Amino acid sequence: QSVLTQPPSASGTPGQRVTISCSGGSSNIGSQNVCWYQHLPGTAPRLLIYANYQRPSGVPDRFSGSKSGTSASLAISGLRSEDEADYYCAAWDDSLSSPVFGGGTKLTVL
Amino acid sequence: QVQLQESGPGLVKPSETLSLTCTVSGGSTNTYCWSWIRQTPGKGLEFIGYICHNGDTNYNSSLRSRVTISTGTSKNHFSLKLSSVIAADTAVYYCARASRSYDMIDWFDPWGQGTLVTVSS
């Protein structure tokens, strides 16, 4: 059971905007920055968002992150078929003194 | 562009030691921190630990008694050893570069593609 909670699945049609939520607590999301990773099975996970809303070079601006209190969200606008993947949130946990992850959300593009 | 690749046995017997190596190309372990993360069907992604360029290490408290992460004389490799493995250690193991500030990990990037290790007799 993961420390951070994500919905197991999400879906949308091409061109739509979808959001994926990530819920935590005061020792992680409530006090630390959140990252988001995209993972296509069989490939290396990819950093999408760091420091809550910052995008690394090369990540399209269709991907955006936000945080409020002990929850964070990843939004994907202009959904494309290549966005079909697993998405994970992560944050440092002060109580565990280590990074923690969400259980992952499988995004399906219908 | 930094790239990482995991290597090691895909099958380990119960009670033995799992040993994996991560090869870093396009960079070296002289900077940043270098980490191991695993993915199990039951527990999702799980942080195992990291070693930094200055030798600092941090391990998941639930694995600390069995884990060692080290860098060798070569500055483009780092390794994971997990002792006394059990079936629950069966997972895809990833290596990743980590950015650390104020003793906290900010992000992992890039990651290797991962290697499946099965614990079975």
Question: Would you write up a description of this structure?
Answer:
The complex is a heterodimer of chains A (110) and B (121). Chain A is mainly beta and 110 residues long. Chain A has strands at residues 9-12, 18-23, 34-39, 46-49, 63-68, 71-76, 85-93, 98-101, 105-109. In chain A, a hairpin with a 4-residue loop joins strand 7 (85-93) and strand 8 (98-101). The N and C termini of chain A lie far apart (28 Å). The model of chain A has no long low-confidence stretch (mean pLDDT 96). Chain B has 121 residues and is mainly beta. Chain B is built from no helices and eleven strands. In chain B, strands 2, 4, 5, 6, 9, 10 and 11 form a seven-stranded mixed beta sheet that branches. In chain B, strand 7 and strand 8 (77-82) form a beta hairpin. The mean pLDDT of chain B is 94. Classes of the chains: A mainly beta (110), B mainly beta (121). Chain A binds chain B through residues 1-2, 32-33, 35, 37, 42-47, 50-51, 56, 88, 90, 92, 96-104, and chain B through 4, 43-47, 58, 60-61, 94, 96, 104-114.
The whole-angstrom Rg of chain B is 13 Å
The low-confidence runs of chain A, each spanning 5 or more residues with pLDDT under 50, are none
User: How many distinct helices of chain B?
Assistant: 0
N- and C-termini, Cα separation of chain B: 39 Å
Average residue pLDDT of chain A: 96
Please describe the structure with a list of short key phrases separated by commas or semicolons.
heterodimer, A: 110 residues, six-stranded mixed β-sheet, 0% helix, 45% strand, B: four-stranded antiparallel β-sheet
